[in-house]
Amino acid sequence: MSDLLGVAVLGAGHMGADHVRRIGGTVGGARVVAVADPDSERAEAAVAGRAGVSVHREAQDALRAPGVEAVLVASPEAAHEEALLAACARGLPILCEKPLTPDSASALRVVGAEARLGRRLIQVGFMRRYDAEYAALKALLDSRDLGRPLLLHCRHRNVSSPAHFTSSMLISSSVSHEIDATRWLLGQEITAVTVMRPAPSAGAPEGLLDPQLVLFETSGGAVVDVEIFVNSGFGYEVRCEAVCERGSAQIGDAHTMVVRTPGRAYEDVAQDYLVRFADAYDREVRAWVAAARRGRATGPSAWDGYAAAAVAEAGVAALRTGARVCVEMAERPALYG
Amino acid sequence: MSDLLGVAVLGAGHMGADHVRRIGGTVGGARVVAVADPDSERAEAAVAGRAGVSVHREAQDALRAPGVEAVLVASPEAAHEEALLAACARGLPILCEKPLTPDSASALRVVGAEARLGRRLIQVGFMRRYDAEYAALKALLDSRDLGRPLLLHCRHRNVSSPAHFTSSMLISSSVSHEIDATRWLLGQEITAVTVMRPAPSAGAPEGLLDPQLVLFETSGGAVVDVEIFVNSGFGYEVRCEAVCERGSAQIGDAHTMVVRTPGRAYEDVAQDYLVRFADAYDREVRAWVAAARRGRATGPSAWDGYAAAAVAEAGVAALRTGARVCVEMAERPALYG
Amino acid sequence: MSDLLGVAVLGAGHMGADHVRRIGGTVGGARVVAVADPDSERAEAAVAGRAGVSVHREAQDALRAPGVEAVLVASPEAAHEEALLAACARGLPILCEKPLTPDSASALRVVGAEARLGRRLIQVGFMRRYDAEYAALKALLDSRDLGRPLLLHCRHRNVSSPAHFTSSMLISSSVSHEIDATRWLLGQEITAVTVMRPAPSAGAPEGLLDPQLVLFETSGGAVVDVEIFVNSGFGYEVRCEAVCERGSAQIGDAHTMVVRTPGRAYEDVAQDYLVRFADAYDREVRAWVAAARRGRATGPSAWDGYAAAAVAEAGVAALRTGARVCVEMAERPALYG
Amino acid sequence: MSDLLGVAVLGAGHMGADHVRRIGGTVGGARVVAVADPDSERAEAAVAGRAGVSVHREAQDALRAPGVEAVLVASPEAAHEEALLAACARGLPILCEKPLTPDSASALRVVGAEARLGRRLIQVGFMRRYDAEYAALKALLDSRDLGRPLLLHCRHRNVSSPAHFTSSMLISSSVSHEIDATRWLLGQEITAVTVMRPAPSAGAPEGLLDPQLVLFETSGGAVVDVEIFVNSGFGYEVRCEAVCERGSAQIGDAHTMVVRTPGRAYEDVAQDYLVRFADAYDREVRAWVAAARRGRATGPSAWDGYAAAAVAEAGVAALRTGARVCVEMAERPALYG
Description:
The structure is a homotetramer of 337-residue chains.
Chain A: E1 5-10, H1 14-22, E2 30-36, H2 40-47, E3 54-56, H3 59-64, E4 70-73, H4 80-89, E5 94-96, H5 104-117, E6 122-124, H6 132-143, E7 149-157, H7 167-186, E8 190-196, E9 212-218, E10 223-229, E11 237-244, E12 247-251, E13 258-261, E14 264-268, H8 273-276, H9 278-292, H10 302-321, E15 325-326
Parallel strand pairs in A: 1-2, 1-4, 2-3, 4-5, 5-6, 7-10
Antiparallel strand pairs in A: 7-11, 8-9, 8-15, 9-10, 11-12, 13-14
Helix pairs in contact in A: 1-2, 4-5, 5-10, 7-10
Domain Gfo/Idh/MocA-like oxidoreductase N-terminal (chains A, B, C, D): 6-125
GO molecular function (chains A, B, C, D): inositol 2-dehydrogenase (NAD+) activity; nucleotide binding
Protein name (chains A, B, C, D): Inositol 2-dehydrogenase
């Protein structure tokens, strides 16, 4: 293989363009050789005149472009299944932005295709696993120094939500990060979901149930509460406190420059997830490039993508009914054992 | 009236002895003139040879002792109702440690007696209202600078629980502070309670459901989650974050001396509520003395004591059944309007 | 002796009036029986119609008033020496606001008078010794857990200075607290002083050398830097970091309620020393009352008052000359051994 | 020019090997084509079997290797001058680890050579300018929102010093970072240096004057104090507080995961500068690669390297003599205007 991994990037929107910039910028060992987007102008803008990158309208064409050795899927979620199956068929390592696919049924089809292949090619973009603070928390919990985890208290706040956001998307799109983080940090499955709905904030668009308090029960008996508030107005904040039998550990209050002005000492609050998690995205893509150059996939698997979808569907049902909803999951293929 | 308010202290246990020490120590304007406790030795120890204090076995005798102008009730909760009714009958201002009485029915009888008197004599010992941080949070919420409160996240942790503690007491004895704090901070009633039960900590006594996650819904549409963990092992911690429409405010992370040692920067964690809330107890008793010298009662009322009991009973039912339980409350007398 | 220590308060200005309010308010065990101030209206205002308090124009008259068992000196520093000598002559325990007297020569005369008496009657108002954070730092340093202290970094900031403040007073009036704190925390004498003078802040009155960086060398080889900035504009802040052989400890960054608003997380900064050190003042007066009721004096001694004056004089000389100035001290009487 | 900038790395020690790893790892847009080190084994180990990298004993040979378009100088400081002059002669952009050269005289020769060329080729490795917190502080100071800077309080602590470290090297090697940071943050020259010497820590090697308190005066009237403590034992810490006319700003207290254990809440303290400043090193090399691909140099200049040497020499004299030493500097060539 060549010196640098040749990557096709599918989708040139916000995330896709950021990944194009990242590969060759903060991430070495790879270069973008093809970009696909139905909007050619957007694709050209992402490439920005870089030499040796072909631009395509169709994802399938990008997959077949010369020099493509791996695929980064950043297209709309409706297009994921087809792209994943095609890339799997060509044996290409894949980094797929979350969600894996729009629902658990389609996710399960992707899992099945990869399981039939008999080796992992897919890494799902749950990038919190690559955040330094989350990694420190995971290491501490795994060490059992604080005993068994009993509770996780999670906060997930955005400044404001995009125009198309629905009440269900607070769970399926935003809380999906906490779903994966819960499963990963605890090494347990989520077995039931309840959603409590405060009177919506006046700062949220009419009709949007924002904020919500989402409650998980896990296979190991832990309870998790997640505040999701996508129109908090004040900042992008992701915090997590793990309460264990002999202590607790808290991340996400990271602070930097403290300014003292008359009567107040303040710190800036991050406004955007690309700022808060910039390093995590870099580390995620670096880990993927390193594995892909050996023809492998590591990190969050297609099964993790499926599990997140199954829990999110239970969550959306809990939101709609106001009741506690149990999570039903398929049998886990041996590949993900 | 004399220069110093003459106080009878009923009960010479942990709290009672602490109040005896407080009056004449950190609190001026009052002096203890009588102490009652069935255990005479304990009462004598609390008085510690102070001149001019009479010691009694019976609360009724202490109330009739010369110089008694006000009553501080720190006896076991089973004895509260009788003491409160007797003190009311004598027109004496009362500071009654929480809970007002053991259940909502008896609390309602006390409320009725005071309401018939037509003036407030009873202040209930919800001393968090006198904590500087809680007071700052209350002032901020009342200012509406951050908009309407949507969520309260509360943490309430003890190092370990006394031997007689039951799973219900996590709610009725410990969370009762958060019940009052919620009602006071939000100026709303609690309308429903749900309790989630993680697998108990190995650090808790066999059979004790510890920790619990208690969820309140309020009349104004706010949702409140309370972690109660009475065998946390690591410290006494009371934290509260109010999430509002345009910002959030968090108390209880107060830190003081930061020590840097090889590889670690640390701060001490308070181990006892008498340390964390020492100033609040002082301020509470000072406020009570000031009002009592004018023959009045301010602060948390008997009605607040009743309301806390009613919510706690719903909470205990929710704990037992696993279901969401609505709170039923009597009609509020005009005196507490 | 009576139940409550009878106190004469000399001076009814800001500090004097605060102490009158404190005794009988947050401090039990004592009551004010006499107040002296040349400005009778001010004295009457401080007393606020309290029964049984005589008001005087002359300090000497207050000392002779019936019921006076102890003296709190809060008059202008020029009046201290005469009041101290008179109170000593009457054998009255004294709490004297700092500075002990206006200069080291007069301070030494007071020391001599007390030394001839052969017992301590005077406590000087270096109230930081009673601050909980300073006390924790002192205990940690004394434990030698972190090894020998090598450096102290001190910050002392006021919002703005009173109209009459001079460049010398930054040292003699403000840094005098750090002089005592250094001697007390380290248990060492200050042997030399150097003062560095940044270009003055535009926020300081014309001609005032503000801020200054004051440097101490101590008998045990430690070096201390003190930022004194009395027109900082932003708050009242007192911080201290002790750097030791095996770690460091830092106080004065205490934080309480954290508020998150768009783009910023902030905390309030105290604006006034009576807020920051309110508890320390209470504890100081409580300790003094407790000792005075036994006819004794504890805490900072007249000798400490003298030493502070001697160091401050060296500091003022260092400020004036720009040179390093050695501190000359008299021999310490056995009483203060 | 080729797609990736071809870099020769001179020196394969700790820093050199780290840069080899960085280029092609966290930094894209460049690749290492040649490495030089007298110790061939060390050079080979740094390259780690990477294809297309030539290994040399002599720096001159590496500069002439095919594909070399830029030079990263990480050899011992005694070898810098020759390498810099040779690279300049070949017109190659250079990133030179600090110090530029071992003394101000040799630094001035390098400055002269670059000035005669008439364009900047040299960037000096003062990587703090690329740290996110320092950059935020610089932006805030430049905005003048807080007014003019009056004081900088700097702390610079290492766990322990290498065996060859001398008392002078605390200034010339360690404080050189604060020298550059002071000049850059304030946009002012350092005009005088004083060094205070506490009794050395028992944790420092026999004879090493550690810690020291280094004091700078600047051309704009600011005063800077720097604690340098290279055997602090507890961690690697770099902190800076800028005190301005209308507020202060403090960096370097960044915290991440807070763990609560019995009686203590703690955070880890970084032990190594490659951890604390990992991102700054990445950003530094990225900025250099970006400029070098356009044939330019940005960031800290050879003149900055010279100025740091001149101030450090004054500092070493101040340490030796105990006196205040003025800084003498050559005239600044127009190229660095």
